[in-house]
Design brief:
It is a single chain. With 507 residues, this protein is an alpha/beta fold. 19% of the residues lie in helices and 28% in strands. The protein is built from ten helices and 22 strands. Helix 8 packs across helix 9. The longest helix is centred in the C-terminal third of the chain and has 17 residues. It is globular, with a radius of gyration of 23 Å.
Length: 507
């Protein structure tokens, strides 16, 4: 298998002033998540606290992970390096930030739900409307009430603020929950895709749409323990997390179907938690069935669903082609069109709930049904832009009725390992350019052949991603007045490496 690695670093920085890479690690300052090796109960000991000057803020039950607060002025990168070399620790990682995957909302409209027509929802109700399934919405919470409301809204929990009130003050989670199970056939507003399903609200994001691994992992465990059949995560981060992955495995091992957004970064790799193998990664398509340009692609993408494009009106109904749902904005309920993989993801979660309600319980069988019934969006079969295709819940449920034990699907194609060839010519790197925009800078370059390609900064570790193209662009945030020293690196299929000289850019 080809290893697609992009290297990156920056100029020296004073403690705590390292640039924040918008496409890589973003985390809560002074917070770490650690697992103690062979200490019996899996929680941090006084010895660990004293060694690092840390305070245990929380022992995350069921995961064997401790949430630590580092002392004032402690820098996460430096402490992480020390902890990773500590033989008493199984792993140590920052408390990575997550955020909602929705794009900016449009104005409020009373329009048409082209999205439900696209996935065959209305005809699917003859077989299942999700009754009997519980879908946990891990998001900004869910606001109760409204002209439409949710058919069945359970009590839930706030894992972010750690209280029993998972109310939504942002609107994102209410929108997502409505897409799944808005009250339907009540003579007003809009419909939900699986109106018979119950919604379990689990608040893992703040009122501003941001969260962290601690809250997300705790939310996943809580939803699982509360009997969720499906977990919807319309959120994402570029960083993987062992803590987060333990929670994913915890849920998956208990037959929970996990669904997450691929992300809206125009990237060629899928965000986490969607990128974990146990999670169904969902991309977005427009009303016309083509991929929404913001929707992340890559080998982990599994299926696409309506996410919309507010810059188009492909169906000619006079409204921008976002997904329409009831939500709360500025403290009041309204109907809005939004776009994003956040909007696409609950369609797949709703479909999973409908499939489970129809009698298919095993998560892998649910995935098989979704993949086998999806309509090709790009090339025939699996591809990295559309996955197995566009969601078709009507076809999925008909498959369940006709064949309750679906045949196995062919796995996503893995890139075959290619032996080095006699070619020793390294790829050329050209068209080098950089654009500075305030606190941000964008670096651009091309290669003359398909190659993994990336940036190596002078003083900061590897910038990891997956790129397989000839045209490259990466954006970073930095600090005004700083100078960043970097070079470009490319590797072709034969393993030939090309590197440029070092360049610098100043903010």
């Amino acid at each position: 298998m080809f290893l697609f690695a992009i290297a990156c670093s920056t100029a020296p920085q004073e403690l705590g002033e390292a640039p924040v890479f918008t496409d890589t690690e973003a985390y809560v300052e002074r917070e770490m998540l650690v697992s103690i090796r062979d200490n019996g109960d899996g929680i941090a000991t006084m010895e660990v606290q004293e060694k690092y000057g840390a305070v245990v803020m929380e022992n995350m039950e069921g995961l064997g992970v401790a949430h630590l607060l580092l002392p004032d002025m402690a820098e996460v990168r430096g402490v992480r390096t020390l902890m990773e070399a500590d033989r008493n620790l199984e792993f140590a990682e920052p408390n990575y930030l997550t955020r909602a995957s929705a794009a900016a909302p449009n104005d409020s409209y009373a329009g048409y739900q082209w999205n439900l027509d696209m996935v065959g929802a209305y005809d699917a109700w003859d077989i299942s409307d999700g009754t009997g399934s519980i879908v946990a919405v891990l998001d900004t919470g869910v606001r109760a009430g409204g002209p439409d409301g949710i058919t069945t809204l359970l009590s839930g929990w706030d894992a972010y603020y750690n209280d029993d009130d998972p109310s939504d003050n942002d609107g994102h989670g209410t929108f997502v929950a409505g897409t799944i199970a808005q009250t339907t056939n009540n003579g007003r507003g809009v419909a939900g895709m699986a109106p018979g399903a119950a919604i379990l609200p689990v608040k893992v994001l703040s009122d501003q749409g941001f969260g962290d691994v601690r809250a997300l992992a705790n939310g996943i465990v809580y939803a699982t323990d509360q009997g969720a059949d499906v977990i919807n995560m319309s959120l994402g981060s570029p960083s993987s997390s062992q803590t987060e992955y333990r929670a994913i495995q915890y849920a998956y091992d208990r037959d929970v179907v996990l669904v997450a957004a691929s992300g809206n970064e125009f990237a060629t790799s899928v965000s986490y938690p969607a990128a974990y193998p146990e999670v169904i990664a969902v991309g977005a398509v427009r009303a016309g069935g083509t991929r929404s340009p913001y929707s992340n692609t890559g080998t982990g993408l599994e299926i696409v669903a309506p996410g919309g494009d507010l810059n188009r009106d492909d169906n000619g109904d006079g409204y921008a082609d976002g997904v329409l749902q009831e939500t709360v904005q500025n403290g009041r309920f309204t109907y809005v069109f939004w776009e994003g993989t956040s909007m696409a993801t609950p369609h797949v979660a709703a479909a999973a709930a409908m499939i489970k309600a129809a009698g298919v319980n095993d998560p892998e069988e649910v995935r098989e049904v979704l993949a086998l019934s999806a309509r090709d969006g790009g090339s025939a079969g699996y591809d990295t832009s559309y996955g197995y295709g566009i969601l078709d819940v009507e076809a999925a449920l008909k498959l369940v009725v006709d064949n309750t034990t679906p045949p196995e699907i062919e796995p996503e194609p893995e890139e075959e390992e290619t032996a080095p060839t006699v070619d020793t010519k390294a790829p050329s790197i050209s068209n080098i350019d950089g654009i500075v925009d305030g606190r941000s800078f964008t670096l651009m370059w091309t290669t003359d052949e398909l190659a993994t390609s990336g940036i190596e900064f002078e003083d900061y570790g590897l910038y990891d991603t997956q790129v397989y193209t000839t045209t490259h662009s990466m954006r970073f945030n930095g600090n005004p007045g700083d100078t960043y020293v970097f070079k470009f690196v490319s590797v072709d299929e034969a393993g030939n490496v090309a590197e440029t000289e070092f360049y610098q850019i100043s903010l």
